[in-house]
Amino acid sequence: MLIIYVIAFVAALAGLLFGYDTGVISGAILFIKDQFNLTSVLVERVVSSVLLGAVIGAAFSGSMADKLGRRRSIVITALLFSLGAVGCAFSPTIPILVCFRFLIGLAIGVASYVAPLYISEISPPDVRGALVSLNQLMITCGIVVSYLVAYALTLGQNEWRWMFGLGAAPAIILLIGMIFLPESPRWLISRGLIDRARAVLAKTNKGKNPDVEIENISKTLTEKGCCWREVFQPWVRPALLVGIALAFFQQATGINTIIYYAPTIFEFAGFGSHRVAILATIGVGTVNVLMTIVAIWLLDKIGRKPLLYIGMAGMTISLAILGIAFYLPSLSGILKWIAVGSVLFYIASFAISLGPIFWLMIAEIYPLKIRGRAMSLATLANWGFNMIVAASFLTLTDKLGKAGTFWLFAVICVVGIIYSYFFVPETKGLTLEQIEEHLHSGKGLYKLGA
Ligand code: BGC
Fold it and tell me: Burial level of 61, CB count in 10 A (0-12/13-18/19+)?
């Protein structure tokens, strides 16, 4: 069993890079802006190049994971991450920096779905939730580490190069690690490489007969070939919709605006200095990490759906209170602590629900043959919604006010709870093949595990 944990840990370094490379820009951009005298258009370009890369990476790599395999796809992203980190660190000009950040974005777009996909296919069902969510834990750790690095390096000059360059270290460890790890047994079976799959299963699923598993997996692969048309077959559509809807709820309930706005909220609540704002950001990131650990502990015990309900209910309450806080002319006494408390409560609630469960669910609900492509679609939707929310946040706060915007996020959370009740399946304890059989029987996903 230990081998499974080692495999999941190494693959989840892709999550660490996802978190680090998206988080690092908030500190680095302050220095880059000063050094190159950037206009706000250029700042915007440096910041958004990663998001754009991620959207494109997720969109165009759909068949890569199905054709080349999960392991090789992660090796490619590790190469891109390493190259991007070194390239950013040595960029002499802004256009070159933008190009390398875009390259890192491509890697993030691919890694964000291939890492959970690989882990889910190599894990036994009873610990799959925990192991796949190790990837989300690493994302949250990456975000905090990027804040800490930014904080530690703020004393020197030109330190932004180090901020980017340090990302090469986990990328190289991921690259070397993945070279030695086995390919996903499910992907091997889908390519007819049965002997290699048997060898992997013997190692990863000790105590179980690999041939029985091979037979179960093979049963899901009766039809030959694979193409995009199959991704849109009627029996797969319910799963496609669940993935895209969860992507929508994960992003449209405002997670990244809260992460981004946390320091402002703390300042507004009267915790004035810059230093306090940075420390508060680190605090928010730390709560995110700690509650993801709680989620990992609970996902395979109480299941995915109860955590979705509890977490989204918590998000709704905290967003409603935050809205009230921003509605009031000023915050004093106990009110400012209530505002701070609701930001922390929001992050904690996200971390036990939509944070890990979106990435986990999309690694579980798609048929093996088209899993890579279908996951890339859900991932594309996630990055797409992320970009739309980021781009429209300022307009929204202009039109609805900050209070109105947070209340809108709260309403979307409520819709998310109702949607989850009716359409999101419970996948706890089931094998990926059982999930696929249920979907194939035409019953959709509702009632699965009920
Ligand atoms: C989301 C990111 C978010 C992060 C925060 C991830 O699951 O996809 O958009 O920044 O969680 O922890």
Answer: buried
